[in-house]
Amino acid sequence: MNVVVNETEKRQPRSSGMLQQLLAFASLIVLILVFSLLSSNFFQFSNLVGILLSTAVIGVLALGATFVIITGGIDLSVGTVMTFSAVMTGTVITSWGLPIPVGIVGGILAGALCGLISGVAIAKMKIPPFIATLAMMMITKGLSLVISGTKPIYFLDTPEFSEVAMGSILNAVIPGLEIPNAVLILFVLAILASILLSKTIVGRYNFAIGSNEEATRLSGVNVDFWKMVIYTITGVFSGIAGILMASRLNSAQPALGMGYELEAIAAVVIGGTSLSGGKGTILGTVIGALIMSVLTNGLRILSVPQEWQTVVVGVVILCAVYTDILRRRK
Predict the structure, then answer these.
(1) CA atoms within 13 A on the CB side of 248
(2) Rounded CA gap, 56 and 186, in Å?
């Protein structure tokens, strides 16, 4: 195992990772400065809080996607798994009449189960990640519509559920600091994900598999088992994102979810995680998610049409991937 870890460290020098994070952070600062100069409404506190709030769900999804992409895999189901988890949370709380904490646990477990099934299909059945997670995307999309009866599930009898994402613990501690809990949850999860990726055996095997899967296998590591663990972790993050989304809307919308996976993957790539595997950081992913939110918010404030906003985001993703290709060549 030491051989694999050493090889991983060689493939991902700290200086290279720091440079990528600095470049991403510099890009974020430049975007903020440009939009602040172009519109006086951009740098207002309420708008900045709105940017952080819009980052929360995509950011949590991106945190989970980071683990999978570092292995050299992909998960196209994170968006619909998020929706499925939200629907399961709504079913447990409203249809079954169970307490909110039980519903939250149910939503997280639903996401974890979906991730585990994808992991089993990829690791044991040897189905390519693209196909396995595409199938899971369709399955969870259909199940969300079936379980909910194609209708939104509203938390009318439990209005306190909205406090999970939209309440403000910080405001109770520091009066006037009205930052939604969803933002706080995002950064707490980012810290936990960073520790998991950099300080635990899960993270070591994560990078090792992405750097050289066959060498990791020959070193005696049960690659199939750890792949299942990693996809399950991604499912857990998708489940949490579903709870935040449901809490923010005060309803579980079964038709939502499609397209969120592309935004999450884009945030991961913009943050410097390589689609080839073996390289990536949680800090970079958070910065990437913020870049996506700042870009979208700034273009909206400047009254840029929705279709052109999509074009700009697509160009940014293309540039990020090309930058990764150039870095790999070097």
Answers:
(1) 19
(2) 6
E strands present in the chain: 153-154, 251-252
Question: Residue 306: what pLDDT?
Answer: 86
CB atoms within 10 A of CB 199: 10
pTM for the structure as a whole: 0.91
* CA–CA distances in Å: residue 85 to residues 68, 197, 207, 262: 19, 24, 28, 18
Q: Would you tell me which CATH number, out of the four given (2.60.40, 2.30.30, 1.10.3470, 3.40.1710), belongs to the domain 2-329? A: 1.10.3470
Instruction: Count how many Cα atoms sit within 13 Å of the Cα of residue 282 in the half-sphere of its side chain.
Output: 20
pLDDT per residue over 40-66, tens digit each? Answer: 889 898 899 999 999 999 999 999 999
Distance CA 299, CA 292 (A): 11
pLDDT the model gives residue 126: 94
Q: Name the 3-class secondary structure at 153.
A: strand
CB 260 within 8 A of CB 58: yes
Count of helix runs (H) and strand runs (E) in the chain:
15, 2
Judge whether residue 70 has pLDDT over 50: yes
Task: Report the distance separating Cα 196 and Cα 204, nearest Å.
Answer: 9
How far apart are alpha carbons 282 and 124 in whole angstroms?
A: 28
Over residues 292-309, the mean pLDDT reads 90
What angle is formed at CA 170 by the lines to CA 168 and CA 171, rounded to 5 degrees?
70
Q: Please report the pLDDT score of residue 322 as a whole number.
A: 82
The tokens of 31 are what? 């975007």
